[in-house]
Amino acid sequence: MGQHCFSDAPPKIVGQSSQPACSAVGWPSSPDDPARPEENGVCLRFGILGNFYDCLFTQNGSRLRSQFDQRRMRLVKRSVKFTRRRFLQRGIAATLTAASPLFIPRHVLGFGNQTGANEQIVVGVIGMGVRGTQLLLNVPASGRVASVCDADARKTAEAVNAHKATWRVDQDYRALLEQQDLDAVFVAACDHHHVLASILACQAGKHVYCEKPLLLYIREGRALVAAARKHGCVVQTGTQQRTMEMNRFTCEFMRDGGIGQIRAVECVNFKGPIAYPAEGLPAEPIPEGVDWNLWQGHPCYFFVLSIARMARPEHG
Known about the structure:
Blueprint: H1 37-40, E1 42-45, H2 52-55, H3 61-78, H4 84-90, H5 93-97, H6 100-103, H7 106-110, E2 121-126, H8 130-137, E3 143-149, H9 153-163, E4 168-170, H10 173-177, E5 184-187, H11 194-203, E6 207-210, H12 218-231, E7 235-237, H13 240-243, H14 245-255, E8 262-266, H15 292-296, H16 299-311
Parallel strand pairs: 1-8, 2-3, 2-5, 3-4, 5-6, 6-7
Helix pairs in contact: 11-12
């Protein structure tokens, strides 16, 4: 369950130094100084969203917290206010649509000032499930949601009512992508729609933030990269653990030796609370308001993928 971090190199045999040359983190029970490991390093315990402050339990913890806060503020001061004009000129959709709307406070991107309507980045959201509705709650002041869609009309109705919004509502994301006023889209539909929706968004000239998993097959990835390059679009997938503010600063701080040599890091990986029966789920009637064929996806798309996988199993 527990494992080391920051280095994929296996520990060397006992009697040799196990400290990787490219890493700031040693292995547990490192023979560098096995007699006094508690004085030469710090053991950090992280959960999935562990708080770094709770992990600083050295004698000079207050000083370390101060250094950590100073490092964070330096990055915040380097942040700039992004308007729609700057967004379109530089093509940096990831600044809005990466994990920043999920984890970076509004004042970092907007500095507390309300951006004018003509300067806001106009966003469409594909998929009104758990991730899509969470994205709606965290769009910074520099962005504005104008359109939402889901194959399940009940979900879009719930979102519109909850936000008392006047968004345009579609059931088919292809209709959403036809809107000329959209600058970017969040793709938070079911997993099997991610890559196709992202490719079609690029073809429509929209920048893309797509939830994970971005794709299922290598060929899909190549097709998406080709579409993004051809149409000059930025595409980013939601690897929040790599982009969330606390994790980025924590890694930078520790790699720079902010808390000295670390002897061990314990991580926990939760598989999640949902268990699916191996024999499958019982048949149910299609709920009212759900476009089942649309939810299933394009039949030709999946047929081609199946044939490609059988022909090139190493790509599956």
